[in-house]
C-alpha cells in the first residue's frame, strides 16, 4: 500500500506536529493514564469526587484516566506510519515482539504483583498483531479471500491472547491502516468504532495536525529509548506503588 501524502481535515497552517512530537505526546498521555491507574487509584484524595455530570462522578483519578484514552489511537497511528516508512520490515516487527516480551514482566507485576498475569497481555502484543496484519494485507494484496482469512485468524488470536484493548484494538489498527491516506474518513470511522471509549476520539485532533515529517527523534538508540519507555515507566510506577502503598 502506498505511503503518499494523506489528506487532513486541518488547514495547512495548523499541521505543525512532527512524528517525533506525536511520540512525545503519546508517551506523556500514557504516563498520565498509568500514573492514575497504577498509583492514584490507591490514594484516597485522588479518588475523592470533584464534581458530577449526569451519572458520572469526576475526580483527579477519573480525569487522568479520561485524558489517557487518547494515547492508544496515537500509538496506532505511529505504528502505521512506522510500518509504511521503515527501511526494514523484519527488524520493525522483531523489535515490537522483543519489547512485547520484555514488557510482560513489569506489566504483570503492575497488574497483580506476580510474575504471571494470564488475564491480559501488554499492548505491545496488540501492536505486533497489527504489524502482522499489515504485512499480510500487503502480501495478499490481490487475494481478498486470503486477506479475509488472515484477518479473521489474527482477530481470533487477539481475542484468545487477551492482549490489551483486545479484538477492538486490533480492528482499530486495521481501520487506521486502511484509511491512512484519508484522515477525515479515518477520524470519522475510527471515532465510530471507538464510541465505547469516546474520550479516545480526541486523539484525531493532533493526528490531523501531523505534518508528515519525522522530527527530532532520529537514530537507532533514540528509537530504542522510545520503545523502552513503556516497560521502564511501568516498572518505575510499580516500584513507587510498592514503596508508597506496600501493594
From TrEMBL:
Would I find Transcription among this entry's keywords? no
Cite the Pfam families for this sequence: TraX
The alphabetical list of record keywords is: Membrane, Transmembrane, Transmembrane helix
Q: Which InterPro entries match?
A: TraX (IPR008875)
The record lists the membrane-crossing segments as 67-84, 123-140, 152-179, 185-209, 221-240
Q: What is this protein called?
A: TraX protein
Amino acid at each position: 500500500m502506498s505511503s503518499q501524502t494523506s489528506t487532513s481535515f486541518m488547514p495547512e497552517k495548523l499541521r505543525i506536529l512532527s512524528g517525533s512530537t506525536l511520540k512525545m505526546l503519546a508517551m506523556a498521555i500514557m504516563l498520565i493514564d498509568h500514573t492514575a491507574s497504577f498509583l492514584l487509584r490507591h490514594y484516597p484524595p485522588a479518588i475523592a469526587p470533584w464534581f458530577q455530570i449526569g451519572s458520572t462522578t469526576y475526580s483527579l483519578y477519573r480525569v487522568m484516566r479520561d485524558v489517557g484514552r487518547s494515547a492508544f489511537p496515537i500509538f496506532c497511528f505511529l505504528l502505521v506510519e512506522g510500518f509504511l516508512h521503515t527501511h526494514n520490515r523484519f527488524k520493525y516487527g522483531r523489535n515490537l515482539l522483543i519489547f512485547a516480551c520484555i514488557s510482560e514482566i513489569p506489566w504483570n507485576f503492575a497488574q497483580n504483583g506476580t510474575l504471571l498475569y494470564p488475564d491480559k497481555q501488554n499492548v505491545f502484543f496488540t501492536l505486533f498483531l497489527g504489524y502482522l496484519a499489515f504485512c499480510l494485507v500487503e502480501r495478499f494484496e490481490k487475494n481478498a479471500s486470503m486477506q479475509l482469512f488472515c484477518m479473521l485468524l489474527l482477530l481470533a488470536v487477539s481475542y484468545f491472547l487477551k492482549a490489551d484493548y483486545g479484538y477492538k484494538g486490533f480492528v482499530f489498527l486495521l481501520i487506521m491502516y486502511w484509511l491512512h491516506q484519508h484522515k477525515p474518513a479515518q477520524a470519522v470511522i475510527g471515532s465510530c468504532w471507538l464510541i465505547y471509549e469516546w474520550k479516545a476520539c480526541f486523539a484525531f485532533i493532533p493526528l490531523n495536525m501531523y505534518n508528515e515529517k519525522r522530527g527530532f527523534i532520529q537514530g537507532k538508540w533514540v528509537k530504542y529509548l522510545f520503545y523502552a519507555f513503556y516497560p521502564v515507566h511501568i516498572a518505575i510506577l510499580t516500584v513507587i506503588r510498592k514503596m508508597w502503598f506496600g501493594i
